[in-house]
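Dear support,

I submitted the protein below through the web form. The confirmation email said the job was done, but the results page showed an empty box. After a refresh the structure appeared. I'm attaching both so you can tell me whether what I see now is the final result or a partial one.
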Amino acid sequence: MDTSAFDVIRAQLHQWGLDDLAGAAQNLLQQGLGEDAILVQLQDTPQFKKRFAGNQVRLQRGLAALSPAEYVATEQAYDQVLRQYGVDHVFSTRDNFAKWIGGDVSPTELNDRVSQASRIVTQTDPTQRALMQQWYGIGQNDLIAAFLDPDQALTELGKKEFATAVGAAMSRYGLGADQQTAENLFGLVGEDQAVQGLQQAGQDFTKTQTLAQRYGVSYSAQDAVRQYVLGEQEPADRQRRLSQLEEAQFARGSAFQSGGAGVSSGF
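What the results page shows now:
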């Protein structure tokens, strides 16, 4: 038996985490097979298929299998991402790696997923975390795990993060968190723009709604979102008309007291 060839094969198997196949490799080498042929045959063993289980899933999904070198390099990249966010002790396992490789999750996508989850976990405002649980059934304990699930599309997860951030802002500025309204803004405006608009809406909403009720006009939180976040003109015109009516009411206050005259809403 060529001991130098066996040393090369054994070193390769060790690098892949398949030391238990060294004996099988030795037997094949004694039968006269070359290094490449031995490694090809070993790929049909249960141990090899279990070690690179993500490839079996890829093949079932019609994706090309990764070479062992590519597979191990991807695992190392995953581990680096998880270490960056301090969650490697929980999620850095071969089973998870196999699931992500099988789901064709790149290290870049994994980074995006962990980053989104990490932002929510570390939010100083607990309202967003509460809405994630209330609206989507994702609690804080399983938040990162949910975002790392390759069966959940990254775009859909981004929508949930956006909606709960907007919902938290709606609650914070007195508009009431509304899931449908928050989700409808996804893709139309950025999160920062939405939050800034909601802050401005909150400054005027109570006063405008009070005037609307006084003059029998509808002006809801959704109207405020349309006006201040989406920049729609119709609710802005309604608000302006309400302000004009209130100014007229104030200016004619003495006449109302003496003659009982009223002011038409004009709507």
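Response: this is the final, complete result; the empty box was a page-load delay. The two ends are 97 Å apart (CA to CA).
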